[in-house]
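Worked problem 6 (solution included).
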Amino acid sequence: GKTTQLAAFVAEAEVRSGFQQTALDGPCRGLHKTSRQLQAKHFSTSDGYQIHYEEFGNPTGIPAVFLHGGPGAGCSQRMAQLFDPERYHIVLFDQRGCGRSKRGEEAKGQLEANTTWDLVKDMERLRRHLNFDKWVVAGGSWGTCLALAYASRHQGRILGMVLRAVCMFRNEELEYFCSPTGDNAATFP
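Solution. The predicted structure is:
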């Protein structure tokens, strides 16, 4: 089937390039060792969400927040491994309606009062709650869009930005990934 063909294509490309499988963490993979969790908590928003966040690394380190992709995904402890736990105070938070950040139990409730600007307000509230003057803002995929939205409103609160797998959700990108006739359709028929 298609999955077998894709796996064979990837295996052949790995052999040609000299790629070697590495451990899931450690210096060969580019991830840092798992650090101990400092705390896991929730804070409440005025519109009924319980926002979940976790802290890892050095409690006196450089503050850094990681913004997960999605929308609809959530954070995992593995995302903290993107940062050196000796140097950074790492914050992961599940955005509204994602992961462990919920508003009631019904699915439809997760979409109400859940805009990009609501998420930006949550980030700023979390930064203030944690008493960080400034922080590094990092994200992947949808998290890059949220990071840029935050930066547009709170430039003075950012030490730096790290963005990976940038997707601006422009029409061209959505067409590429989602359309049955887009360029991605030819890659994975």
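Discussion: Confidence is low (pLDDT under 50) at residues 17-22.
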